Amino acid sequence: MVGTQTTRQESRFPLGLFNLLAVLEPDFFGRNLYFLWWLFLRAASGLYFCITLWVILVKRICGDCIVCGLVQCYLKICFQIIFSASRKYLTWFQRVGRRLIFGKGYQMQDTNTTDNKNKVIKFKESAWKCIYFLSAEFLALYVTSKEPWFNNTRHFWVGPGDQVWPDQKIKLKLKGLYMYAAGFYTYSIFALIFWETRRSDFGVLMGHHFATVTLVVLSYIFRFGRVGSVVLAIHDASDVFLEIGKMSKYCGAEKLASIAFIIFVLSWILLRLIYFPFWVLWSTSYEVVQTLDKEKHPVVGPICYYLFNTLLFCLLVLHIYWWVLMYRMLVNQIQAGGKISEDVRSGKYSIYI
Predict the structure, then answer these.
(1) Where is the TLC domain (predicted)?
(2) pLDDT single digits (tens) 50-78
């Protein structure tokens, strides 16, 4: 019953043919999961055919540069559609959540109470996010770990060879990482409005998603992809442990939740409060001025500098804000003998909502 209600609620968001089928038959996707992917691939192949013809026409008129932008925009839209369509698989996470939260006899228990419903809904949302953050982190490390700018921030702006910003080559795998992240965070804005459980930090999360999407798009346009790939790798790592801790909390595994929370806090301090400001922001605000020739970019240079750094410092402010909440949570956890309480981001003393 819970799965049916969730499907109906999620199908309110206009997804064209997907939404029409969900309205006509609410359990359609639950019984025909593979058909969802077949339908998406058919729609994508038809769209691809139309885009290909359009690209050939534009290429003849405008050249290769605009064509590349069109193709990359198309890939971002595809990832956004995939993330949106994949939410239909949350019914599977819902069944797993019931089993883990209520035990083997979950079918015999009353799981339709308000508290139990909220636990299951929050579990499946955390499971979905955990899969994304884990896959995105592996992808970001695959893209950046063997690159020179992963260990030396000066290579954000110069090298290898005679490459100097903004005339730096962007590898295909870096473009793929950007399309993947842009699709997810664009989807996250709509998910926060239409699908996810409304929390008291709605405005902060919405600001974070907007800042992230803007950073991803602008950093790609202004050739700050090297910086952006490292920022994505920094941010996704700690979020994995956050979602693992949430799921453990919902399942009643307090020890595992405490361990995950401690790792999450340590990774947050190391990556977001130390490495991010003292390496990444230092490079984007100071090192870049010492490395590049400002006279070559008298107009575009200052615009990119102030706009990009303003958004990055906004992220840092959000990091500090959430760290204050985590610190309160940590103090209360110590006072409670290691047991995690409610959610600090919802106005209570915990990080697990």
Answers:
(1) 121-335
(2) 444 444 444 444 444 444 444 455 455 55
